[in-house]
Write a structure and sequence with these properties.
Elements (H helix, E strand, L loop, with lengths): L6 H8 L3 E2 L5 E2 L5 H20 L6 H8 L3 H7 L3 H24 L6 H17 L1 H13 L4 H10 L1 H17 L8 H13 L2 H7 L6 H19 L9
Antiparallel strand pairs: 1-2
Amino acid sequence: MPVARSRQAVSVELFGGNMNPAGEVEHEPRSGAARKTQRIVNAALQVFLDTGYGAATVDAIASAAGVSKATIYTRFASKEALFAAVIERECLACSKRMAVVEQAPALELSQALREIADMLLDIILLPRNLAIQRLVIAELPRFPELGRTFYDRGPAITLKNLANFVRARVARGELRVADPAVAAQHFISLLRGDIQWRALMEQMAVSDTARRAARERTVGVFIQLYGAPPDVARP
């Protein structure tokens, strides 16, 4: 079996795209090798969603991508590595949009939090991401490693990025937080409320009104919990 290329090399090919307004990554790989890697990951996602992780085979993914198994194995060491690449790509939009907020220190705290809330809701409620979560939940009893991969390559990265934002705003005197990681967990938990569960289990579209209500509730409660008094916050 050909030796799989390094994760860094594959990541360079996977993560070079732009985002559309819905928060989805629109990839524009520059090289033929990058386009082929993208095609493999696209095919893997579709096969996983169509058949489930357990029933999915590298043969089926290769056929859907129009490549050989050998080509896949030069990029990904296993089916689990392919799944990890799918999750990493889906989380790229979240990381990129978070970076935009982090790099805009002039943004007033409540507005920055609203931007983050909108971004997280875009990711949480994206139909494709909901389908991936259903897949992970369904396959968890037989493939517990999927849960670890999903968390490590998805929610854990989002929490880390959000904690970094909180830490930066603490340094500016805008927030009073003893543990930024815990504060990040609180923000995301407040935001999800029952919206994510209803979208996940009932497969219902969430209205713009419900999204706005979740955002405003989350930002209001978070600032009430962690906001520094006006006389403490730095100019």
